[in-house]
Amino acid sequence: MARFHPSDVGCLLQNAAYQTEGGWRQEGKGASVWDTFTHRPATPPGAGFMGPTGGDVASDSYNNLFRDAEGLRRLGVSHYRFSLAWARLLPNGTAPLNPAGLAHYDRLLGRLRALGMEPVVTLYHWDLPQHLQDTFGGWASPVLPELFRDYAELCFRHFGGQVRYWLTMDNPYVVAWHGYGTGRLPPGVRGGPCLGYRAAHHLLQAHAKVWHLYNDHFRPTQRGKVSIALSSHWIKPQSMTEKNIKECQKSLDFVLGWFAKPIFIDGDYPESMRSNLSSLLPEFSEDEKKYIKGTADFFALSFGATLSFQLLDSHMKFQQLESISLRQLLYWISCEYNNPPVFIVENSWFVSGSTKRDDAKYIYYLKKFIMETLKAIRYDGVNVFGYTVWSLLDGFEWHRGYSIRRGLFYVDFQSHDKKLMPKSSVLFYQKLIEKNAWEAHVLLSAVCHTGISDI
């Protein structure tokens, strides 16, 4: 029976670098597309930014590394996922290197090592160096995959001896569709579907280049694993008709399958996309298909509010109904992609930005998702080997700004010292780890006898 192993769970996900680090112009960091986007005079309607500064300071994690590490120590987690800021290491996106950025991440990795915590490192979480956008047009350019490979090589050389789990990028759907298609997110290019699909094409090529780079040159000595964090919604038919069920499959194809099928199945896009999009969808050559196929050592899944209920365009639902059933999504992934090992690299919900330290809603959803994961393992045979909560502390929540919170620790964004204060969810998660309740039979027994709200 597949199950969580104690050494692979108890994970915690930090927000992306832009959401928490701050220090946006500190010690040589270059501008990212998010820096530029949040400093525009007119904030997009409904974006929810608090003031004009976006993530300029955010949770100020860049200047509070030991504060954050103390929060991790208090929770007792085994792993910690964070992202590197490309423009902090390479201010223009390419050489020369910024030594201060390199030293910062060395300190962070050193602190995690001292605490006995495993890092899970994302190379790219949406904060493309602005110079690459200005010079080449960002991910719309076929030049970007090679530049991304160069950046990844720098990271593997400098940090690879301390990192076993790498993620090339987070949620390429959002980058391609809303960065270059709708323009809702940075770099804010309203290029329509054609440009969105082109950007996705280059993101897939970039990911494959980095996987092969690691596989050929770094895996023999560093012995790590590389994947890509893919996000998805779950969707159910309005009625149990063959047509509606097929539309649900199409909805998942157009969001998750867009990236997962090329990587996990055959190097090409889903047939439902090919038949519906005609000339809009770029073509992979036969050599490119072979190059992309199999470029993930595990299935890294991100499941939460950002895509499912905030950034999924309504027409991507194909007139069907969204659902927050993580268990059903896990089972679908297992069936669709030949039962891969799954690492849930982001999961949780959100509470209102006015919430302080009583986050009962957050705990409710966290319990729900953990139970669904354990049921998927025990009853459905899904091969889940790790689980990650989003996130350590409150941060800048992308298009929602500071109007929502997703951290276990509360941050007063108006304060100078940005002291972390534990929420109710800290005690819940801490006790869960202490009691080793990740063992499937423990929690499943509890839910059968007491119900989810009483655990």
Tell me briefly what this model is:
With 455 residues, the protein is an alpha/beta fold. It is built from 17 helices and 14 strands. Strands 1-2-3-4-5-7-9-11 form an eight-stranded parallel beta barrel, surrounded by five helices.
Q: Can you give a write-up of this model?
A:
The chain is of the alpha/beta class. It has a single domain, classed as TIM Barrel, CATH 3.20.20.80. Helix content is 45%, strand content 14%. It has 17 helices and 14 strands. The chain has helices at residues 17-20, 33-38, 65-75, 86-89, 99-115, 130-136, 144-159, 172-181, 192-222, 242-266, 271-277, 286-292, 305-311, 326-336, 360-380, 424-434, 440-450, and strands at 11-13, 79-83, 118-124, 165-170, 225-231, 234-236, 299-303, 321-323, 342-347, 351-352, 384-390, 404-405, 409-411, 420-422. An eight-stranded parallel beta barrel has the order 1-2-3-4-5-7-9-11, surrounded by five helices. It has a two-stranded antiparallel sheet with strand order 6-8. A hairpin with an 8-residue loop joins β13 and β14. α3 (65-75) runs parallel beside α5 and α8 (172-181) runs antiparallel to α9. The longest helix is centred in the middle third of the chain and has 31 residues, at 192-222. The radius of gyration is 21 Å and the shape is globular.
Biggest beta sheet summary:
8 strands, parallel, barrel
Question: How big a fraction of the residues is strand?
Answer: 5-15%
The CATH class designation is Alpha Beta
How many domains make up the 3D coordinates?
1
Please tally the helical runs, counting DSSP H or I stretches of 4 or more residues.
Answer: 17
Mean pLDDT: 91
State the CATH superfamily name. Glycosidases
Q: Percent of residues in helical segments?
A: 40-55%
Stretches with pLDDT under 50, minimum 5 residues = 1-9, 44-52, 440-455
CATH topology: TIM Barrel
Structural class of the helices, strands and pairings?
alpha/beta
Got a strand count? 14
CATH architecture: Alpha-Beta Barrel
